[in-house]
Amino acid sequence: MIEDNKRVIVALDYPDADSAIAMAQRLDPAISRVKVGKELFTRCGPSIVERLQGLGFELFLDLKFHDIPNTVAKACGVAAELGVWMVNVHASGGRRMMEAAREEVEKRSVGPARTSLIAVTVLTSMERSDLAEMGLDIEPIEQVKRLAALTERSGLDGVVCSAQEASAIRQLAGDNFQLITPGIRPAGSEVGDQRRIMTPADAIAAGSTYLVVGRPITGATDPKAAALAVQAEVDAALTASL
Length: 242
Ligand code: C5P
Prior knowledge:
binds cytidine-5'-monophosphate; alpha/beta; TIM Barrel; 8 strands; single chain
């Protein structure tokens, strides 16, 4: 099992730097990490990464790169030079793309720990009919398992997956393969637009390593306390699983 007492990644889904920084200032880098996605990064560029790191946060740069191997590898290399904690690619870019990205991240990581490189398998917005239209006439979970196995064989650190997929992937992957899981809703919190949700404790029991949590924390009256409560639920679930 992975030794890490910070299992919560707070999604900073904001359209501009001021809002993201204001939220980060209401969180505690000792309790959680943060995630920057395409909207915020496209608006602000690397300066938002540097500003969040300046506040002490380790950061997941969720840009889901997908292109020819050389292009993705170079982009991941820049992310590693920025010192981000984690960056991701689409597993459907294939083995050569993932291996090239991994090599570049290894070469260009700065700081004591190498930047983690993970992959997205099948977007959770895709249903069986969407895959069929793309010529893949199989259940999404089968494609998820294939791509998770390919990700592991390509030497990446883990995959993003829904909590519902976590136990199936956990069965086929090694103990150190990280499962990063969004769609988390602590008991009693608003579901919002998420369709398949799980509580933090259930996600950990299903084999998740890190939980991506947005609105249940960022929309709370006290975001830091909300993040601490999720981490406490994770700690209890991890202890129970020993
Ligand atoms: O606010 P909420 O907790 O729903 O935020 C979840 C975060 O995880 C968002 O940044 C969303 O884009 C991301 N995500 C997701 N489902 C996926 C992949 C990523 O909700 N399948």
